[in-house]
Amino acid sequence: MNPRRIFLPRRIRQGSYFTCCLTSVFLAGWMATSVTAASPPSDPLATWILRTNTASMFRPFATGEGLIVTGDDRGAIYTSANGANWSRRESGTNIIVRGVAYGNGRFVALFAVAGFSTSDDGVRWTTPTVTFDRSIDLFDLEYAQGLFIAVGYRMFAPYDATILRSTDGVAWTAQKTVTNGVYRAVTYGGGQLVAVGHGAIASTGLISTSTNGVDWITQPPTASVTYSIAAGNGVYVGLSGQGIIRSTNGTAWSLVQGLPISNWADVSFAEGTFFAAGAGGQLYTSVDGETWMQRSTGIVGLFSGAGSIGHRVVLGGMQIVQSGPFEGAPPLIIQPPASRIQRVGTTYTNSVVVESSESVTYQWLRNGLPLPSATNSTIEIPVTEEFSGTFSAVATTSSGSATSSAPAIIAVPVGISLQPVSQQVIQGGTATFSVVVTGTPPVAFRWRRGGATTNFAVLNSHTSFLTIPDAQLSGLYSVAVSNIVHAPGELSTFATLTIVPDSDHDGLPDAYETERGFNPSDPSDGALDTDGDGVSNAAEYQAGTDPQQGESYLKVDRLLAGEGARVEFTTAPGKTYTVQFSDDLATGTWSRLADVPATASASVQIVSDPTAGGARFYRLVTPRQP
Predict the structure, then answer these.
(1) Average of pLDDT values for 178-185?
(2) With contact defined as beta carbons under 8 Å apart, do 591 and 612 qualify?
(3) Three-class SS of residue 7?
(4) How many structural domains comprise the chain?
(5) For 130, which DSSP code?
(6) I want to staple 464 with a disulfide (CB 3.0 to 4.6 A). Which of 300, 399, 445, 565 is the partner?
(7) pLDDT value of residue 109
């Protein structure tokens, strides 16, 4: 016998996707405080709402951590907090998801031939790994009695029906229960696990039970293959080759008579109801597994797998649909408030869309505190300086409440507070322009020479530098700045880059040497220290200090102690700086503390070092180091 040759419909795990049906959608006007909907329907399964419609086939459902989770036939995981709005999560594989379970604070997903993936929050998933015998093929997953249970069979002779168990979804223990058998599905109810499939004879069903997930008892076989099972309301319901079968103890089964179809795809249990999906797209429901009612979702396609969240049922398959609210269902927020970035003086507007069969009242909160008069599905308030925070919409009915939040941030338009300063450098020298802006970052800086862009960057900073190494050509430079609330931006004034000759290549311009009595034809002038302050003439020119005044050289004026340290120094016009520090001079390693932009005139700058402690050394470097 080769069980791989037998075609069996694949079940989409019990408790998987959600179906949402809302009897009313409220979008109240600004002045209203509540809206009354029609009376709740007597049958929440009479109306369904389409929530997703993709090319994927959605598989089993599991609920935990305030989320309902499912997977599809392309290896993706999907999560939702309400069954209406879904987010795709990457699993690192494109292999079909066959099962999802939740227990002991963890989600576990079963991937065909790819093993298991785990998540402690439903959002971030590990890459699926196989930590068991690769000859085992698994079809379904359940959590009960402190264990994750996966069922399947060994793909090579003697094709043993096999059960794996794990406490954490990572380390698995395999055990053979039946020789020449295949488990297709597993469920938990009535204090026991029940695994079903088929035995050595393909037409004979296989059923095994366990009260602890470790010790399994193989029960008398059913008349035909059983490939899906669910438990609830004190009964077990399975799908077999003959049709729907039912049991009150998991061992003795009877065929349910009178149903018009026998080709079923999946059976699940959610919100006190069994859901049986026909292979042709039919949907039947039952409370006791004996009496069944055909349902119409109004949506064409195969369904398989049911789950629930917020007292609403979700059905999976080629799409996800959601039922109406069962008794006690809170309102459902299907369109949450949107994040906003606002300018002071504008009006903050937002809205929330709620589905409910009851009267709904609204209250908007800012940072958890109620906003007076903000008691509708929409909100409009002026934006002030204290505006930033988290805004939440709370929708309340007699059955409960739902809350959805979104951040709102004040954004100040960008403006230039310190314009670029003109630079004069010798040919081949380094020129550094700078600009300082106000406004809310990130800020886009577009540096230009004439009208052509030379550098573009978006920074979470109010300062930008443009470094021009090996400068050869004079020109006009400017910078255009913009941010999210000032897209046109602002253009700086022009700064001139002037290239001056240095005939003897000593680092001193010819005109500078002539003015100070040096020889423009003597290449040794730059290396001299005319004023004896320990700094060469060329270095003093670069720093903007006076090479003929001993007290004028690049230095830290004062080092102030307190909370950390403060470095005080005097800048020269048009010069940019980097303040560096070192905790060990022997290593020769210096780290950046801060960059200081150029000013049009000399100024006193103080740079703080809040992390200073013990012995720390500081130095200045000009121009600013890239």
Answers:
(1) 90
(2) no
(3) coil
(4) 4
(5) -
(6) 445
(7) 96
Distance CA(15)–CA(271), nearest Å, equals 10
381, 410, 439 — which closes off a domain?
410
In a domain, 351, yes or no: yes
Q: State whether 69 and 111 are in the same domain.
A: yes
Which residue range forms the structural domain that includes residue 214? 3-23+38-323
Buried b (16+ CB within 10 A) or exposed e, 461-472: ebbbbbbbeebe
> Where are the strands (E) in 219-328, listed by range?
226-232, 235-240, 243-247, 254-255, 264-270, 273-278, 283-286, 293-295, 303-309, 312-317, 319-323
Instruction: Name residues whose C-beta falls within 8 Å of residue 158's C-beta, 6 or more positions apart in sequence.
Output: 179, 180
In a domain, 542, yes or no: no
Residue with the two structure tokens 């003597």 = 522
Q: For residue 215, what are the contacts with CB-CB under 8 A and spacing of at least 6? A: none
> Which amino acid, residue 19?
T
Within a domain: 548 = no
Asked whether residue 124 falls in the same domain as residue 262, the answer is yes
pTM of the model: 0.68
From 455, 478, 500, give the residue that closes a domain: 500
Contact 142, 129 (CB under 8 A): no
Confidence of residue 203 (pLDDT cuts 50, 70, 90): low
Cα Rg of the chain, angstroms = 37
Does a structural domain hold residue 118?
yes
